[in-house]
Amino acid sequence: MDVERLKFILEDVKAGRCTVEQAIDALKYLPFEDLGFAKVDHHRQLRNGYPEVIYCQGKRPEHVKAIVERMMARGNRNILATRASQEVYQAIKEAAYDAEYHEIARIVVVKRSEVPVSKGKIAVVSAGTSDLPVAEEAAITAEVLGNKVERVYDVGVAGLHRLLANVKTLNEANVVIAVAGMEGALASVIGGLVDKPVIAVPTSVGYGANFGGLSALLTMLNSCASGVAVVNIDNGFGAGYMASLINRLAQQS
User: Fold this and answer.
1) How confident is the model over 180-239, as pLDDT tens digits?
2) Whose CA is closest to 125, among 161, 148, 155?
3) How many separate helices (H) and strands (E) can be counted in the chain?
4) Torsion of CA 114, 118, 121, 122, to 10 degrees
5) Residue 38: how many other CB atoms lie within 10 Å
6) What's the rounded Cα separation, in Å, for the pair 221 and 184?
7) What is the per-residue pLDDT across 34-91, written as a single tens digit (0 to 9) for each?
8) Which helix (DSSP H) or strand (DSSP E) does residue 125 occupy?
């Protein structure tokens, strides 16, 4: 249920094209629908501007398919499913034939309505090629939410000249997402180069003492650069969503 569909229902009632009982029937699944294994939040687009995002890891493919079916039946034409395997993708395609799978990002997208694109840009920067799954999760999320995304990949601090060659691109963005594993120094370096908010994403990429991303997380949390905020380990989706909110607010100023 989005704002336009809600307006349509209320205008139909006002004009006499729809009875109050019919309107109640259309709205009775707000704010959520209980499927037994999941409570689907059909009200989220009205509150947050985008439908509930499905986190697929750990869910059975048939459960994800059922969630997609109910979301579509209740007027959600754009659906984002994260951490999706090929098996989950095939299940979603049974419910939505036009679903697209972004394999590196592990994201499934169903897009049946155009989302207004913000004028400003989001820059997604990765330290290394091994960080691409998390970086692409952030980038695809931001794009689906209606943002222009500039990708700057494999520019880690081991070869600082690669990053410095792209400073102009970073400064043209309203917000920068810095994705890095190992020691996670990339976010601090970027924070010292630009006057934009930097969302740091630690990844679990690294050798044993990386502790599955903990070393990168602690480095980013202890950054001496101003304007650096940190999301959880490997949380590309959270970074992309937060960057979208910041970019949208920048357009209102």
Assistant:
1) 999 989 999 999 999 999 999 999 998 998 899 999 999 999 998 989 999 999 999 999
2) 155
3) 11, 11
4) -70
5) 17
6) 10
7) 567 777 666 666 666 676 788 999 999 999 999 898 888 777 778 899 999 999 999 9
8) strand 121-126
Report strand pairing: 100-102 vs 107-111: antiparallel
Global pTM value: 0.84
For residue 30 the two structure tokens come to: 């707000």
Q: What is the DSSP string of 41-58?
A: ETTHHHHHSSPPPEE-TT
| CA–CA distance, 211 with 29 (Å, rounded to integer) | 44
Structure-token match 């959880």, residue found: 232
Q: Which amino acid is residue 234, in one-letter code?
A: D
| Helix, strand, coil share (%) of the chain residues, nearest 5 | 45, 20, 35
